[in-house]
Each structure stands twice: as structure tokens, then as C-alpha cells.
Amino acid sequence: MTPTVFLRQLQVQTQEVLRLVKQEYLPCSPAALNQQPAPGSWSALECLEHLNRYSRYYLPELAAAVRHPARLPHVAVGFSWLGRKSCELVNPDNQRRHTTLARMNPASSQLCKDTVLSEFIGQTEQLLRLLDAAYATDLNRKTVSVEFFRLLRLRTGEALLFLVAHVRRHVAQGQRALAGAGK
Questions:
Q1: Residue 24, SS3?
Q2: Residues lower than pLDDT 50 in the chain
Q3: Where do the domains of the chain lie, and which CATH numbers do they carry?
């Protein structure tokens, strides 16, 4: 896939997530947003807080990656084995549950609606700016360290896809939690 098509798809998906969170999460009460649909399941706010924790790491990494212009316009976006596996793991269509790192797990937290939503919206807007900047960079360059093992690196395009897919996965999970909470 060409970089232009790839980035445009990620932008559309990210804009849709932002629209959905503003439309469906913002009007909800703090109680509904904090209600877990089942014991051991995350509430809608816990889903967003999990994403906030990942974005605190990956957004600065991606900002550094897209800062170096080196666009190769006719080179297809490629994926390494690690990149493919990482993106498959967080794909919203992958319904398998996964264990997260303890520091990324906000389970059983009473979270502040305004704080979590404000940070999430700000980070999602920052991600959209990074996607805009990525049009001028080489998406196949290995520049982004993996959060849990920083010696491993993802290509810039892989890291962007990973982050967008991860956001989509957990926003959908949060929607299911809200549906169970009755908003």
C-alpha cells in the first residue's frame, strides 16, 4: 500500500474514534463511565486510561520519528514480523483477551471523567497531527522503540498502525462497557 493511502486510512479511523468518544463518552455520567460490565472487566474510563498510558510513551516516540523528513513516495509501506504480530495482537477484529503489563493496567480504578477524557482527546488530536507530519517521512525506517522492550524497534508506519488499531480496539471495548452500564 502506498504511504498516502496508508496514512489517509489511519487519519479517517482516528477521526472516527475522536468523533465517537466526543459523541458517546462525553455525555455519560461518571458513574456509567466507571461501571465495569463484569467482574474483572474494564470500565469505559479504564479502557481510555489504558490508552492514555500507552500514548504517553508512544506519542513522543512517534513525534521524534516523523521529525526527520525522508519521504520515499513510491515505496510501499512494509511490515516486519514484529510489526505484523504487534498489529495483529491489537487489531479490533481480534476478540482474544490479552494480559497487559501491570503499569498499563488501570483495573479497579475510580477515575475522574474530565481528566481521563481530556487527556484522551488531547492525545488523539496530537496523533492526528503526527499522522499529518508522517506524509513527509519514511514510514519503513525502524525508529520507534517498543514500550515493553526498548531494544526492539518498530518501523514508523508499523508503530502508527499499532497505535491507531490499539485505540480502536479499546474504544470499542469501552463502548461495550457503556452499553452494559446503560449509559
A1: helix
A2: none
A3: 3-95+103-181 (1.20.120.450)
